[in-house]
Amino acid sequence: MDSNELASLPGINPNIPDASRIYDYTLGGTHNFEADRQAAEYMFSMVPSTRKWVRMLRACLQTAARRMAADGFKHWVDFASGLPTADHVHSVMPDARVIYTDINALTIDSARHLLGENPRVKYMECDIRGAGEFLRRPDVESFLEGERRVALGANAITVFLSAEENRKFFRDLYDWAAPGSKLFTTFETKEAGLSTPKWEQFVGMFRKMGESFNLYSLPEYLDLCGPWSQDHMGVVPVSEFIGKPSGYITEEDREGIGIEFYAVILEKR
């Protein structure tokens, strides 16, 4: 489906930027409009490394999916998924049953058109603040064939939750999942006490849209994950997680405030 087909969907307004389409543009996708591209470029003007970090986060998701597939997982539940374009989980794990979720109705409608009639993939509405209730829904359990030893994905979402919401989210997943389940997630950090006017403007943009935007230290993030255990690789910078060479992240990429993203696969033992 191209942008013309996307524009024909009920409720889609090409003149109003949408978070999922902005993300798509940042990844180099084609499912976006001029308003989305302008909004993204405005973000890049404040934090130029945004595009690089976002593309690494998508590469991390693909790497995690390949590792989960190698571990024999046949079920993946993904939270706050955005648009399921060609480089998303179902493309990396074509034999798995994949559930994507989002809270935005327009994103969900667009995503379902993108996916077509693929019987192994379902896009469902879910507020991640109620992830536990979502996982216990009969239609979710039916699609997962009653399986609770599953792969879970929470890519680039912790920053949009309060500490209490993060703790509840990770605990809800842990309580639902069977032993042997794994959870891929990422954390965004910066050096404590450092900021710049453009960074404050960047954060303010999200808050004006009604989004929470909270960075925590790496120890704080790991504490919020509660009872989950790290796998053998542990928590590492995203550049290391996807095998980039030393020096791939430059000082310019850290935007003068020590930006770093981390990735980890957690386990329920």
Automatic annotation (TrEMBL):
Q: What GO molecular-function term can you cite, just one?
A: methyltransferase activity
Q: Quote the Gene3D superfamilies the UniProt record gives.
A: Vaccinia Virus protein VP39 (3.40.50.150)
Q: Which GO terms describe its biological process?
A: methylation
The UniProt keyword set, sorted, is: Methyltransferase, Transferase
The answer, when asked if Methyltransferase is one of the entry's keywords, is yes
Q: Which domain of life is it from?
A: Bacteria
Q: Pfam family example for this protein?
A: Methyltransf_19
Q: Which InterPro entries match?
A: SAM-dependent_MTases_sf, SAM_dep_MeTrfase_SAV2177_type
Protein name from the UniProt record: SAM-dependent methyltransferase
Which organism does this record belong to? Pyxidicoccus parkwayensis
Q: What is the lineage of its organism?
A: Bacteria, Pseudomonadati, Myxococcota, Myxococcia, Myxococcales
